[in-house]
Amino acid sequence: MTHPATFGELLEQHEREIFAYALRLVGDRDDADDVYQDTFLAAFRAWPPPRRGHERAWLYKIATNKAIDRGRRAKRFVRLGDLPLAAPERDGVSLADLATAVKALPTGQRAAFVLRKVQGLSYAEVSVALECSEDAARSRVAEAMKKVKEAMR
Predict the structure, then answer these.
(1) CATH pick for 1-79 out of 3.30.160.390, 1.10.1740.10, 1.10.760.10, 3.30.9.10
(2) Is the pTM of this model over 0.70?
């Protein structure tokens, strides 16, 4: 993927995945649309990104922060009823059980889990998005996986 030279190119390259990420974080289309719009408005205001070549992670970082801010205001963070992490009823685990397990994770672990396991970001991108070291990102995802597996037993 080429690095965007303009904000319009950035928007074209990442708008769908950022909306999908926002939807997975907040669980409601209207709220996700607000997070998506807030994300790109903040990105536009801060253009150009601080580190060339990390535009995608930069957008995820902004989107994560916007979703967290929105959640704080609403006193809720995530409704993950349609989280596409496993086939429903596969191995005796329902999608609702999985969504409940993910929803119970602490905010930092949940964000790391969704970025890595659902959105498919690398650990380096997760670390940029969550403003932590790559080791911390790995640790958050590993701990989240451990807790989700434990909850699925």
Answers:
(1) 1.10.1740.10
(2) no
